[in-house]
Amino acid sequence: MKRILIFTAGFGEGHNTAARNVRDAIEFLGEDDAQVDIVDLFDSCYGRFNELMRQAYITAINRTPKLWQGIYNLLDNTHLVEANIDSLVRMKKAMEELLIEGQPDVVISTYPIYNFLIDEIYKGRPRHFAQITVVTDSISVNSLWYRAASDYYLVPNDDTAHVLAEAGVEAAQIKVFGFPVQLEFARPSDDYRLPDLARGDSPRLLYLINSGKKKAPSVIEKLLEHENWELTIAVGRDDKLRQLAVKITAGCDDRVRIIGWTNQMPKLMMTHHLLITKAGGATVQEAIAGKIPLLINQVVPGQEEGNYELIRRANAGALAEKPKEIITWAERAFENSGQLCQTWRQNITTISRPDSALQIARFILDLAVPTNVPATPGGILHTQQATPTALHPHSDAPAHQRRLLLCDLHTHTTFSDGKLTISEMVDFYGQRGFDALCITDHLCDPKRLLGKLVNLTGLVIPPGELDDYFAAIEKEKNRAWKKYGLILMSGVEFNKDGYTPKTSTHLLGIDLKKPINPALDLKEIIGEIHAQGALAVASHPHKMRSIWGKDTLYLWEHQDEFAPLIDAWEIANRDDIFNPVGLKRLPFIANSDLHKPKHIHSWKTLLWCEKESEAIKECIRINRDVSITLYRDHRFGYGIDAASAAEKKVVSDVLSFPEPAAA
Ligand code: ZN
Ligand code: ZN
To answer: Which residue range(s) make up the domain with 314?
Structure first.
């Protein structure tokens, strides 16, 4: 059981939100394997006093923002906290108990003060846990966040990573995963629909009134003057405000909705065009995840400035503090069939990381293996895979998002002539730590005579089962990702076999979204593959040495015509290596063309890119940071007694390696 302890505090909205979302994502991924506790020591140690402080904080940021800015700067620029850390005796004691009795594997702070206490407690002693700081602010990051020790600092975006790096935090300690938003942003329901402004649908505005309540009535009245605008007003837990809003909007029930506190924020954000809100850390991050442009009507000096700055730099909204400004900007956003609104939306999409919480959870679960935590004096830093930046001078994505990915993108299952079912394939590759797997069962051209014959054999996907095949892969994607962090892709190997090698082609469609008619001609198929954002790859394009292999040389013989259309050529297929692909400097990958478990001992592709299907495809298309490796699996033989019959079968199959050439 992995034990994970999260410290949070109720000052400002972001810390608790981040803590909750990280917990939910860990529980979603880790299931019974992880125990996560969230603790607010300010609340549990100082109860009523803490509540007074919290209220004072909220009042301060609303009524006396200048004073708050003074305090913020003081905390940023002096060692006030370090000097006064002793005054938090009660909290330090409570924390010590939690850490020593709870024996957590990972400790996470979403509020910076806790790290100072941990420093105090472990002065000169080794820590027995990995320590992670989830920075909830962007760009304007108070130095409190990184003055105390932490193994890793998880930040919401590249700009913030840059700020930390400039301040002297080691690059290896900074991880950009995005702000941890609710899981729903990454897994929206199919029925969330955003009306299409370009086709004349009504604009939908979402107005969150969390502060600046005095201005609210005037803003609502002005918004209502536009009769085709639909308005959702969220008033939180403020009953007085709700009554007021109901009164102002009387008679407009058909286009106004007033809601109280809600946990439906992902849905609301994904079904509205424009959000009016203050620049709160969590709200701005949720808007980015939900890809909704913002009109920001209040910025708390100090910590919220960075949140606004993020939107300004992305050009994904505007600052509109006065009611009149709000209306003017909304009008601009929606004029010309919502052109500006659409531009903002495209811009915000480029910085959106809706799956941030899952990425963070995966990172934490990986760290939470107790053996990962070496107890070295003076704190720990987990050993990391060295980042070979020198080898990758052309990398476009920041290096910390990239990693070495082990991929097999050409495999067969029982849907054609493979031995394993799709679900067995997921476990087989998942257990071996593969990062990406594409299932590419054979599909024959029914117009060709050979295709017609083969369609009768059951060794290719029967034409009537193509939809089932896609559905079956789709069904496994979630489990593959959840259980193994394995990206599962749907694909097809289009077999266009003639009577001679020179009239035969095998073409892979990798990461297809839906079936393609195999009777189309080759160029049409490639066009359809590309229209789906998928890759067209020439499989075993040159002469095979293996006895089993039948040569398919059509594409190779027609290179001039097809090279511009093909995304990559297999430079290796199982045991075969095709030197000419390398000599011609064609874009390449290597695959196992796995039909049975023992084929796992074969050539594979290694990619250096972000672990995400679009990034994987782009890496192959550009064909930079691609390498091939000869994969040998020596892990089998361990724990055989505990293995199931099915596993034993796989084991015995694998151990029969090396494959006799004539098999
Ligand atoms: Zn083939
Ligand atoms: Zn194949």
So the answer is: 191-350
